[in-house]
Amino acid sequence: MTALKTTVWKRFSKKQSLERYSIEFVIVLVFVWATKSVDIYWPFITDAPHQAADLLNRMTPPDFAFIGTIIPSLIETINIATLSTIFALILSFPIAILNARNTTPHPIFLVVARVIVVTSRSVNELVWGLIFVVFFGPGAIAGIAALTMRSLGFMSKLVSESIEEIDPGQVEAIRATGANGIKVFLYGVLPQVMPTIMGTTIFRWDINIRQSSVIGLVGAGGIGILLTSAMNMFRWRNVSMILISIFVVVLAGEYVSAAVRKKLT
Amino acid sequence: MFSVKNLVKKYPTGQMALKGCSVDIDKAQIVSIFGPSGAGKSTFIRCINRLVEPTSGEVYLDDVEITSLKGRELHKARRQMGMIFQEYNLIERLTVMENVLSGRLGYVSFLQAMFRRFPKESIDEAFYLLERVGLAGYHNQRADALSGGQRQRVGIIRALIQHPKILLVDEPTSGLDPKTAMIIMQLIKDLAKEKDIPAIVNIHDVALGQRYADRIIGLTEGKIVFDGPPAEVSEETLTMIYGEEDWSKTIRKVEDEEE
């Protein structure tokens, strides 16, 4: 090796660089167009810090005496979350079985189950809340129905994915004993997906606590109802107290959920 | 007692896994099936209890023809055939006792299965068998806490508690160390003799298969190319089954056995 050949190395070829620059240019273009089109009224933005300080001032100190009114409402919030999680667990179980390729009795059920899952997941809980408030009238029942509908797809999807990933050898072994379909499911499938079912349920409960504190905004029960009325009446010290208590409950829910899920693994 | 007539399996891909295999077993003997990977050994054993649907052919266990059975009748036939697997296939998250008793699932009702209320005779037998294979005291351990050899013992008694008329054994030792492999083969042999039932054992370890078998069947490309006692397995036989190779070091000399 005497003659050192100098080689030019470039990370991107001419064509690649050109592509990258044009993509970057398009992103800048989109940004500029978006900011122009949303019609920003600049005095509102410059005024915002002042408004925030003013609101904060009206919110402090939080009205701790209001806790007496908050507590029953908070309990209702947690109960809405718990009940909707339990109903969703029960309803999602058969849907998950239909939705998994290896347990569905017929491919047509795959389509049915998928439609249910997608419908449940693509509609926001506030929209479900609005719908069920029409059905059941305002209150906790509408909230439970809304969160059940919303949780259903989430839980069915995660559990059915877990069913599709099971070890087929264990299923084969149970079939070989002469067990019928339902016993094969009971011994060959269920023990393998049990950790996912429990983990998903507790995780969903945690999410539902957060959401059940919001659905009151559309009248579907829970602490949200208290929050909207406090805001409508400009009782800002009550509002801050409600926000603090929601924060505490959500934090507690998250802690319980994390602790339980840690135990499961 | 047991016979397979002209068993054929063609997979949807067009691959011919079995090209007409016939075997008769008329006494309680250990039948080792030799053959290279992909020869159809696993397919053969699974076509017998219909974990894989055979394309054509007949399987007789006593006087029952198995390939034509449906639903409940098929489940009844399956519970008379105990199966032991290469990867043990225990229910990992269940206890040893639940795994053993799952061998009785073909006999108990749905509610009994669901609430683990197995008949007392089955539980007594499970304890007896656990002790028999050296797993006394392990009944409440979870299966995933056991070693490979221990798992395979649980696999063996799950098959035995079915009270099978035949054992179907698929590569029982391939995940085990040589010593454990011998212990497991000895156990399968002893228990099959004790229960006076035949066992069909797929095995790729020639020396091990020869040592514990009463009869050897050679399977190559879906066809039976050899059927005879272990003493008749020669280098030519192995070449016929597996292809050209120096077999002189692999083969077991029968005279060593007698000392």
Walk me through this protein's architecture.
The complex is a heterodimer of chains A (265) and B (259). Chain A is mainly alpha-helical and 265 residues long. Chain A has a single domain, classed as MetI-like fold, CATH 1.10.3720.10. Chain A has ten helices and no strands. Chain A has helices at 14-37, 42-59, 67-99, 107-122, 125-136, 140-164, 168-176, 181-212, 223-232, 236-264. In chain A, α3 (67-99) runs antiparallel to α4 (107-122), α6 packs across α8 and α8 runs antiparallel to α10. The N and C termini of chain A lie far apart (59 Å). The mean pLDDT of chain A is 91. Chain B is of the alpha/beta class and 259 residues long. Chain B has one domain (2-257): P-loop containing nucleotide triphosphate hydrolases (Rossmann fold, 3-Layer(aba) Sandwich). In chain B, 35% of the residues lie in helices and 22% in strands. Chain B contains ten helices and ten strands. Chain B has helices at residues 41-48, 71-78, 96-101, 110-114, 120-132, 148-160, 178-195, 206-212, 235-242, 254-257, and strands spanning 2-10, 16-25, 30-34, 56-61, 64-65, 81-84, 166-170, 199-202, 215-220, 223-228. In chain B, the strands form two sheets. Chain B has a six-stranded mixed β-sheet with strand order 6-7-8-3-9-10, sandwiched between helices. Chain B has a four-stranded antiparallel β-sheet with strand order 2-1-4-5. In chain B, β9 and β10 (223-228) form a beta hairpin. In chain B, α6 (148-160) packs parallel to α7. Chain B is globular, with a radius of gyration of 18 Å. In chain B, 43% of the residues are buried. At the A-B interface, α7 and α8 of A face α2, β6 and α4 of B.
